[in-house]
Write a structure and sequence with these properties.
Blueprint: E1 2-5, H1 11-22, H2 32-41, E2 47-53, E3 56-68, E4 75-83, H3 92-106, E5 111-115, H4 118-121, E6 132-133, E7 142-146, E8 154-158
Parallel strand pairs: 4-5, 6-8
Antiparallel strand pairs: 1-2, 2-3, 3-4, 3-8, 5-7
Length: 163
């Protein structure tokens, strides 16, 4: 398996992976494919990586810019992360996340936020900080990973592609 940047012509395979990964998922509202497509159309896929195995895309991850109420620049949001159901729990998602976070660090990003299961995302260094908020039913599921600079404060707004 190899990880690489999304390339022109990958769009339909990525959409198929995202759709399959979130189909029937209890925390999905079915908007994930549209989010990726709108981010792409807006030029807001700061990092878009695929996992390719034997010429087939089996996983995908995106990172896009976010805004923080205190004006702190250089922050990004992780997601969606998608892996074909038959390939989940094999380390593909984790490899994509680590590779994307490393690209953000090398590019000089200040940090990254994610809305997701703390039991999963803490392994990448994410943690909940009540000073950084996002309107979610479970506030502790909103987490940050700071690379540099002072800790940001206030509400986070994702790109308009998230709806």
């Amino acid at each position: 398996m190899k990880l690489r940047a999304e390339e022109a012509g990958d769009e339909s395979a990525i959409s198929a992976v995202v759709e399959a990964a979130f189909s029937g998922h209890p925390h999905s509202d079915g908007s994930e494919v549209g989010i990726v497509e709108r981010l792409r159309s807006a030029g807001a896929l700061s990092v878009s990586l695929v996992a390719e195995d034997d010429g087939r895309i089996v996983g995908h991850v995106t990172f896009s810019p976010v805004s923080i109420a205190d004006g702190t620049p250089g922050w990004f949001g992780l997601g969606p992360v998608s892996v074909l159901p038959e390939r989940q729990r094999g380390g593909i998602g984790g490899a994509l996340i680590r590779a994307g976070l490393e690209q953000l660090r090398r590019a000089g990003a200040a940090g990254c936020v994610v809305l997701g299961d703390p039991a999963y995302y803490t392994r990448f260094g994410y943690y909940h900080d009540p000073a950084l908020t996002y309107p979610a039913p479970m506030p502790e599921a909103f987490q940050q990973l700071r690379f540099s600079g002072a800790p940001p404060k206030g509400e986070v707004t994702y790109h308009a592609a998230f709806g």
